[in-house]
Write a structure and sequence with these properties.
The complex is a heterodimer of chains A (about 220) and B (about 240).
Chain A: H1 2-45, H2 49-64, H3 67-77, H4 87-112, H5 116-124, H6 129-159, H7 171-182, H8 185-216
Chain B: E1 2-11, E2 14-24, E3 29-33, H1 40-47, E4 55-60, E5 63-64, H2 72-78, E6 79-82, H3 94-104, H4 110-123, H5 139-152, E7 157-161, H6 169-184, E8 188-192, H7 196-202, E9 205-210, E10 213-219, H8 220-225, H9 230-240
Helix pairs in contact in B: 3-4, 3-5, 4-5, 5-6
The chains are: A mainly alpha (about 220), B alpha/beta (about 240).
Chain lengths: ~220, ~240
């Protein structure tokens, strides 16, 4: 045990630099996936057939490709097409796109859960599609959408470790580098696991809070 | 003011309106009665474009009702609607519900709209509930808020779609009272209702609809007291003397 604390003190600063990147990748891809997911969801419920079909096929394509392949594509294939991305950019873009499909389905479920009478009431006072969304549907959908949104946040935090496969030196990669150079696998990966857990716990509590609030209504 | 000319409407194979021709004059109160599934609500919903119609023409103040045209917003700001299930916005306060349309659709000045909103809530007897949220109110109170919301648009006419059908019996009177006062003040109203007492006392004219056609129409008292058509007679007998 003494050895663990000793190693922990030694490796902590290096692993913390990985944590910083993990948080950066998570927040960056969370924002991107939220914006893209909202766009896909709006297209899906727009009532315009072309947009709705385009969004549905896009979501299916994204869902059908593993995150890791998407990352490889952005990082290794795009340069051949003349677009060079840094590892960090590719990671945020890849995870953001991959998760936008799940965000979109989540948002759509929230929007479609709103009572049709609400939309008719909005129309009956002269609201158009966009105003109805903004003033009536989305504010009510947020309550429904938040608990699953929190779960997506947790999943994204953990899946940010896949960025290690394209050389982003986030927590998982830093751990792997230390472990392979010191052979202290047990201590290093225990630390890595504990650090992921430490970051997840506030999010888990947040989800519980959302669920309570949504349940109250 | 509201004109329907040979209006047809089908849901799939089921033709629910089979050529409705009617008109509502300014200041008139028209009640539409008839068995459920006869197309009463569909008529109202076609008038403000919540539902499309297949053939014929509906116009409000000379403006054709077409739910896919941008002019539908103008129609809807002139003809308000009160729903059976109130459909208040639960995430906004009572006052916010009332001022939503004038503020965000008609873009009227805030101070003026808020003042009018409070006055309307006082008019329906709910001034002290301005800051409550709809789920905290009884059904009757919610429906009165919905009427205030409709009035806040300063409409030329209001459509009521079975406004008291979802209410506990003891709460019906308050809502009908507010509607009666509106009628007395000269508001143009089209009311789909099962409240025959209200129809008799308040309506100028009653339309009896069955099977998607107007079977009989006339002055309220005449139609309700001496119905001519056997189907009207049969319907009224069942509604007035259910046992």
């Amino acid at each position: 045990m003494k050895g663990f604390w000793h190693d922990a003190a030694e490796f902590f600063p290096i692993l913390m630099s990985g944590v910083a990147l993990t948080i950066l990748v998570t927040i960056g891809s969370l924002l991107l996936s939220t914006v893209l997911g909202l766009i896909w969801a709006m297209m899906r419920v727009s009532g315009i057939k072309v947009l709705s079909m385009l969004s549905a096929s896009l979501i299916n394509v994204i869902r059908g490709i593993p995150i890791i392949v998407l990352l490889f594509y952005l990082y290794f294939v795009m340069p051949d097409l003349g677009v060079t991305l840094s590892a960090l950019q590719a990671a945020i873009l890849g995870l953001g796109i991959a998760y936008s499909a799940y965000q979109a389905e989540n948002f759509r479920a929230g929007i479609e859960a709103i009572d049709k009478g609400q939309i008719e009431a909005a129309q009956s006072i002269g609201m158009g599609w966009w105003l109805t969304m903004r003033r009536v549907v989305l504010p009510q959908a947020v309550r429904i959408v938040l608990p699953p949104y929190g779960n997506v946040m947790i999943m994204m935090l953990k899946d940010s470790s896949q960025a290690s496969t394209i050389t982003v030196a986030e927590l998982a990669l830093q751990g792997k580098l230390i472990a392979s150079s010191t052979f202290k696998n047990t201590n290093v990966f225990t630390m890595v696991a504990l650090m992921y857990l430490t970051m997840s716990i506030p999010l888990i509590l947040l989800v519980r809070h959302f669920e309570k609030r949504a349940g109250k209504k | 003011m509201i004109e329907l000319n040979d209006v047809h409407k089908s849901f799939g194979q089921n033709e629910v309106l089979k050529g409705i021709t009617a008109s509502v004059q300014k200041g008139e109160v028209v009640c539409i009665i008839g068995p459920s599934g006869s197309g009463k609500s569909t008529i109202l919903r076609c008038i403000n474009g919540l539902e499309s119609y297949d053939r014929g023409e509906i116009s409000v103040e000379g403006l054709k009702v077409d739910r896919d045209a941008s002019s539908i917003v103008k129609v809807r700001t002139q003809v308000s609607m009160v729903f059976q299930r109130f459909n208040l916005f639960p995430h906004r306060t009572v006052l916010e519900n009332v001022v939503e349309g004038p503020l965000f659709v008609k873009r009227e000045p805030r101070a003026q709209v808020l003042e009018r909103g409070r006055a309307l809530l006082a008019q329906v007897g709910l001034a002290e509930k301005a800051d409550a949220h709809p789920p905290q109110l009884s059904g009757g109170q919610q429906q009165r808020v919905a009427i205030a919301r409709a009035l806040a648009m300063q409409p030329k006419a209001i459509l009521f779609d079975e406004p008291t059908s979802a209410l506990d019996p003891e709460l019906v009177g308050d809502v009908l009272g507010v509607m009666r006062k509106l009628a007395d003040d000269g508001m143009t109203m089209v009311v789909v209702t099962h409240e025959m007492g209200f129809a008799r006392d308040v309506a100028d004219r009653v339309l009896f609809i069955d099977g998607g056609v107007i079977v009989e129409q006339g002055p309220a008292k005449t139609l309700l007291n001496q119905p001519q058509h056997p189907r009207t007679q049969d319907f009224l007998r069942r509604v007035l003397h259910p046992l």
